[in-house]
Amino acid sequence: MKTLMLGNEAVARGLYEAGCAVVSSYPGTPSTEITEYAAKYPEIYAEWAPNEKVAMETAFGASLAGRRSFCGMKHVGLNVAADPLFTLSYTGVNAGMVIAVADDAGMHSSQNEQDSRHYARAAKLPMLEPADSAEALQFTKLAYELSEQFDTPVLLKMCTRIAHSQSVVEPGERVAPAPKPYEKNGAKYIMMPGNAKRRHPVVEERTAKLIAWAETAPINRIEEGSDHKIGIITSSTSYQYVKEVCGDRFPVLKLGMIWPMPEQLIRDFAAKVDLLVVVEELDGFIEAHCRTLGLPLAGKDYFSCLDELSQNQVAEKLGLPHGVGIQVDQEIPARPPVMCAGCPHRGLFYTLHKLGLTVLGDIGCYTLGAVPPLSAIDSTICMGASVSGLHGFLKATGGEWDHKTVAVIGDSTFMHSGITGLVNIAYNESNATVIILDNSITGMTGHQQNPTTGFNLKGDPCTKIDLESLCRAVGIRRVAVVDPYDLAACRRVIEEELAADEPSVVISRRPCALLKYVKHNPPLTVNQDKCVGCKACMQIGCPAISVTGGKAQVDDTLCVGCGVCEQLCKFDALRGHGEV
């Protein structure tokens, strides 16, 4: 029975139908929902791993044991998992292993634009790239067949638009292959230099076989057109734009296997058209391959390597009528991102800002502490970089910044890659103060559990990592816990830890205001007679507070009664319901 599915949901369905047994991932937009949907199938063991490297190694272990496995991540997560990725290309697999990576062209929820197709080429691994939900399901199942046929992990490349759009899918039944027996084989799986040297030729031979397969693979298809003045090579979201704009006018070579790419098929297609045009987002990956074949073409000289493409851009560059979408004549007011009303990070960042500290930030919703009016973060690079960066900053400045610089990192990010940075601080003895923003969840990607929450992916109780004990175990003797809703306590604790001549950790602990189990106080009200319009309450940037007619106003549909703004009002104009 046909149904609408998100692209990520369709991948999860493909995992189910292909008989995948083990799923290990780390949440990251736009890949997160694959694992969340997979966890709904009781036949699949699914988990959140502490980071992507661990997830990939877990998936390899399951494959080695003879069960089909999967791990999913966003594009920057593949950077974290690159270490096992490149060596798994040499070892190959036992049972099928599929790795999904979701790119975020346009940086809707990412710190960079990164084209993961380069990883497929560099690691010499096959990569499939679906263009809708139906293909997401089909290609996931195909990936397992290729994995076992060619003895290789297979990359499945998603992107924001395919992952988060819906299209028609026809689900099938689960067909779970019999588990493959594990057989000890050191020459294949122990990658010491002597064995690895013998495995490299196997990888090159495999690539040649995959190229031959790609020449006639149905997922690389030519769609004929009436006008052969232009021939278009494309894939993924760009294929959808091309078809919306061109219909059947120009012939199209739609690539489903994006690496390795066919050679003769592309040459034959190019020979049928007057001008070859490559339409692809981000880097000129297909274009570079075509140029190595000696083919003249148009590509990135027409289509930018920046941001997403659109139907209008494709139409304009191809000289076709365009104007898709609603045209707005007036300027739309900007809606800058802001932390939620009652966000536990707000009080902490307000304190850091008032203290005038230099703050090395990290990846999470707390990165919004960088925007006005809080403006409390000086850098954000990647998961865990705040802690390691703080150590380097302090070592480089020789004590000059020791008592006025901190790092902030979330609880999930700390478990992901902050621990080793803290070990470095303890081991190499920098006078660093690290603030762990413990909101009891992985907030930015939609409230996923992590090792500090006490629950696993399926919501079952599990081991809860004690952050205080962990920090002490790695050599940090000074560990303090503070409630970020208490501004006076925040300031006192941070000043105390900064004044100490040894490394310290401050745990700012208060659950995310959006968690369903969190009970809020009644919203605050404004005593209009006492309010003088000083706007002190606006300094925290809470979306529940505004000023109208020179007086503060509280939106009681947003306010959670956290009381942070109440602590800023010198005129006692902000009060909880029932207070006088």
List the helices and strands and how they pair.
Layout: E1 3-6, H1 7-17, E2 22-25, H2 32-38, E3 45-48, H3 52-64, E4 69-74, H4 75-80, H5 82-91, E5 97-103, H6 117-123, E6 127-128, H7 133-150, E7 154-159, H8 160-163, E8 166-169, H9 186-189, H10 193-216, E9 221-223, E10 230-234, H11 236-246, E11 252-254, E12 257-259, H12 264-271, E13 275-279, H13 285-292, H14 311-317, H15 345-354, E14 358-360, H16 385-397, E15 405-410, H17 411-428, E16 433-438, H18 467-473, E17 478-482, H19 487-499, E18 504-509, E19 524-526, E20 545-548, E21 551-554, H20 564-568, E22 574-576
Parallel strand pairs: 2-3, 2-4, 4-5, 5-7, 6-7, 10-11, 10-13, 14-15, 15-16, 16-18, 17-18
Antiparallel strand pairs: 1-8, 6-12, 9-11, 19-22, 20-21
Helix pairs in contact: 1-2, 1-7, 3-5, 11-14, 15-19, 16-17
Domain 4Fe-4S ferredoxin-type: 522-543, 550-579
Cofactor: [4Fe-4S] cluster
Subunit structure: Heterodimer of the IorA and IorB subunits.
